[in-house]
Write a structure and sequence with these properties.
13% strand, eight-stranded parallel barrel, EC 2.7.3.9, phosphotransferase system, binds magnesium ion, 317 residues, alpha/beta, binds phosphoenolpyruvate, sugar transport
């Protein structure tokens, strides 16, 4: 019966009392679109464009090839939001022709937006391809940069988008604690934020996301991580702008409710997780989500945060 209920669940993401939380998909390219559409997503919250670049590690894909891949995705979401992340090369996703080979600490080196600002030709070509792919389509295109550290980064990205003639909302991923702490400053330039909780956990706890032995510190239930999520969401809400989550945290149904309680405005995840998140949100009120969020933040460890949220969320209003 549980499986049947999940299978039949569809429609937009919302709490039982009608607080809307758009549920979006994380995709790596056109091949992931059918599963996302089948899950009834309201759009794409994270299009990881680096997969297009990983095919050929020697050079960037041609602008024409990029236009074709982007267009296939945009056509699948006629009226929906599609949030595209510009190339996130380096660290766990090295590219021979862009990533310095001799860095002692690649995760703390030239990666993400830093790489693109060092190779403005690659960034301009990608932004022009996105503009061309969206031309004439009703898709609501939003473009965001990975690894934004400060307002100078945000400004440089917005300026690059303008230079490429891109008419899309521009955003910053919050993956570095400095970006969460100074979210309000970034929002003077960008129009939305998206929390990449995988990297945000890595940089908050100084725990390499590729080292399995440090999984405890990568746990998105860590109260310190929740504090940073709250800081970013509070800043966005104060500025009347959106702040989504596109890291793994959004795929955990109970944590999705906690994130909603912290003020996050959309959740993006792999299509397989979406029915579970939708079903959990649909049986909770916004007040319950807020109570669970407060309980989780008041805990001292990830384990205690999870237990406290579970207890708090089932209370009545
Ligand atoms: C993240 O860091 O949380 C994120 C969504 O980006 P990626 O996992 O691709 O680094
Ligand atoms: Mg990341």
């Amino acid at each position: 019966a549980h499986e049947a209920a999940l299978a039949s669940a569809s429609g937009p993401g919302a709490t039982v009392d009608g607080h809307r939380v758009p549920l979006l998909a994380n995709i790596g390219g056109p091949a992931d679109v059918p599963a996302a559409v089948a899950a009834g997503v309201e759009g794409v919250g994270l299009f990881r464009t680096e997969f297009l670049f990983l095919d050929d590690n020697k050079q960037a894909p041609s602008e024409e090839r990029q236009v074709e891949a982007y267009r296939q995705v945009f056509e699948a979401f006629p009226e929906g939001r599609v949030v595209v992340r510009v190339l996130d090369a380096g660290a766990d996703k090295p590219l021979d022709f862009l990533t310095p080979a001799d860095e002692p600490n690649p995760a703390l080196g030239v990666r993400g937006l830093r790489t693109l600002l060092d190779h403005p030709d690659v960034l301009q070509s990608q932004l022009r391809a996105l503009a061309a792919a969206a031309a004439g389509l009703p898709v609501q295109l939003e473009v965001m940069a990975p690894m934004v550290a400060d307002r100078a980064d945000a400004k440089a990205f917005v300026e690059a988008c303008r230079q490429a003639g891109l008419r899309a909302k521009t955003g910053a991923m919050v993956e570095i604690p400095s970006a969460a702490l100074r979210a309000r400053s970034l929002l003077q330039d960008v129009e939305f934020l998206s929390l990449g909780t995988n990297d945000l956990a890595q940089y908050t706890f100084a725990a390499d996301r590729q080292v399995g032995a440090l999984a405890r510190l990568q746990d998105p239930w860590q109260p310190a991580l929740l504090d940073l999520v709250a800081a970013a969401a509070d800043a966005a809400n104060a500025e009347g702008k959106s702040c989504g989550v596109c890291g793994e945290a959004a795929a955990d149904p109970l944590l999705a409710c906690v994130l909603t309680g912290l003020g996050v405005t959309s959740l993006s995840m792999g299509a397989a997780s979406l029915p579970y998140v939708r079903a959990e949100l649909a049986r909770r009120t916004l007040a319950q989500c807020r109570r669970a969020a407060a309980a989780a933040r008041a805990a001292d460890t990830a384990e205690e945060a999870r237990t406290a949220a579970r207890t708090a969320i089932s209370g009545t209003d």
